[in-house]
Every structure is written in structure tokens, then in C-alpha cells.
Amino acid sequence: METLMAYVVGVLFASAIYMMLRRSIVKLVIGLMILSNAANLLIFTLGGMTRGSPPLIPEGAKVPEGVVADPLPQALVLTAIVIAFGVLAFAVVLIHRAHEVVGNDDLDQMKDTDT
To answer: I need a surface site. Which of 45, 66, 69, 92 has the fewest CB within 10 A?
Structure first.
């Protein structure tokens, strides 16, 4: 299962980089969102794909019993999702304003408006 996830992460990273290298600013933002999803999936894959119970320690024990899930990758991905949503909201506002000013989403034409 982890080998399949490694291939999926590789394809997502490759498609994100391809989208980010396009001339359209909308495609750049879509690539940025794919990149953040690929990074989240990479963190989950590196955290281990084993299923387990919550890491709760029973009363009187010093360590959890059985296989437990690692909460650190889950916390990191949750934080990354919130940050990615903030970046997406900022990028959508930036795209909207740039389209109002320039009238196009081509990055080469946006360079011509610099003075």
C-alpha cells in the first residue's frame, strides 16, 4: 500500500509542478493547491499506513496497549490544511484584483503593465 501511495504522491507533485509552470495565474494557483495536497499525502504516508486505536493509555498502565495511531502526522496535516485554505483565499482575491486591473490572467502580459 505504501508503494502505491509513493507513486500517487509522485504523480501529484509532478502535476503540481507542471501546473505551476504554466503562464496562467489561475493554473499557478491550482498547481499550488495540488502541491499542498501532495505534501499532506506525503506526511500521512511517511507517518505510516498502519491502522490503530487512539493513543490512549489505560488507567494503571505506562504505555498504550496494542497498535496505536500516531497523532503527530494528523496534527501536521490539519495545520497544513488550514494554512493552505488561507493561501487559497488570498490567491483568489489576488487573481480577481489582477484580472480587474490587467484584464487577462497571462503572466507575460502582467509584466508589461509594470512601470
So the answer is: 66
Instruction: Summarize pLDDT for 40-64 with one digit per residue, the tens.
Output: 999 989 888 777 777 788 888 888 8
CB–CB of 70/47 below 8 Å?
Answer: yes
pTM: 0.80
Report the alpha-carbon distance of residue 101 to residue 49 in Å, rounded: 47
Q: Nearest 5°: phi and psi at 66?
A: 80, -165
Q: Burial code of 15-34, b = ≥16 C-beta within 10 A, e = fewer? A: ebeebeeeeebebbbbbbbb
Cα(93)–Cα(51) distance, integer angstroms: 40
